[in-house]
Amino acid sequence: MYEENMGGYIVLPSEEEDRLVDEETYYWNKIDMCGVRFRCRKPLCENCGGYGGLIHKTNFARILKRFGNLEGKFLRQFVFTVPGNLRTCFMSKGGLNSLFGITKRVIKKNFGIVAPGKKRKRREGPRFELQKNAVAILHLLGEEVIYNPHINVLLLDNRDNKMKLTEEILHEIKRSYKRALQAYTGTRLDTVSVHYAYKASKADIKKSVWYMARPTDIETWDSVSADYYDLPLSDFTSFGLTGFHFIRYWGRDF
């Protein structure tokens, strides 16, 4: 049985010093040969969050586990960015959940199949089902370190399919995304940004997953100017997004 010690430590039997206990919640790390420190697993924690931290490593391992065998596969990588004039529409848990939903519908429409089932009304269109494995990862900051919500979609596909997408397919993806954003926000848009790339080798796939799986550290959040918003962005991510899932798994096998 474990016993609590001073300073948040837990004493373990010596033969279990290196044991990983309940990886969904705890992480044990050897300290002073006899104890371990409890990890909170919060993105803004200086120990758990940030590049190379516990959350980053756990996200990376979970995504690769979900993807399974990469033999004969390649990775499609999309970045769906919210236009600057619409970003305040997605500064809430509900708004960001809707952004996930919009992106998922676009991916299902362009890479899924028509789902069997109850006949729908013509104006509703067909219902699509995604049979390929995909991971959607939300990042809230852009390269300029400002609030810039964008969703990275990693779609695992068979090598039998063409890696490079035609201009027609890319145009349809952008058109679907623009129409969905306009319908949600009630704002007319001229253009939207959807970036596409692909990774063919296993090493490049893992590099992309590692990069996309990173959480944002507290130092970066605190460096963001929040004068335009009603509250500091660090407070928004700490309290406004409590319990929010930044990573979503889509597809038949997920």
Explain what the structure shows:
- The chain has 254 residues and is an alpha+beta fold.
- It has helices spanning 54-67, 93-111, 167-185, 202-212, 218-222, 233-240, and strands spanning 3-4, 9-11, 35-37, 73-81, 113-114, 128-129, 134-141, 147-158, 193-199, 247-250.
- The strands form three sheets. Strands 9-4-8-7-10 form a five-stranded antiparallel beta sheet, sandwiched between helices.
- The longest helix has 19 residues, at 93-111.
- It is globular.
- 25% of the residues are buried.
- Residues 1-38 have low confidence and may be disordered.
Shape: globular
* Overall helicity: 25-40%
- Poorly predicted runs are 1-38
* Helix count, DSSP H or I runs of 4 or more residues: 6
Indicate the structural class.
alpha+beta
Radius of gyration: 21 Å
Strand content: 15-25%
Average pLDDT rating: 76
Order of adjacent strands in the largest pleated sheet: 9-4-8-7-10
In N-to-C order, the SSE pattern is EEEHEHEEEEHEHHHE
Short summary:
With 254 residues, the chain is of the alpha+beta class. 30% of the residues lie in helices and 20% in strands.
Q: Which short descriptors sum up this protein?
A:
single chain, 254 residues, alpha+beta, five-stranded antiparallel beta sheet, three-stranded antiparallel beta sheet, 10 strands, 20% strand
Question: How would you summarize the topology of this molecule?
Answer:
Elements: E1 3-4, E2 9-11, E3 35-37, H1 54-67, E4 73-81, H2 93-111, E5 113-114, E6 128-129, E7 134-141, E8 147-158, H3 167-185, E9 193-199, H4 202-212, H5 218-222, H6 233-240, E10 247-250
Antiparallel strand pairs: 1-2, 2-3, 4-8, 4-9, 5-6, 7-8, 7-10
Helix pairs in contact: 2-3
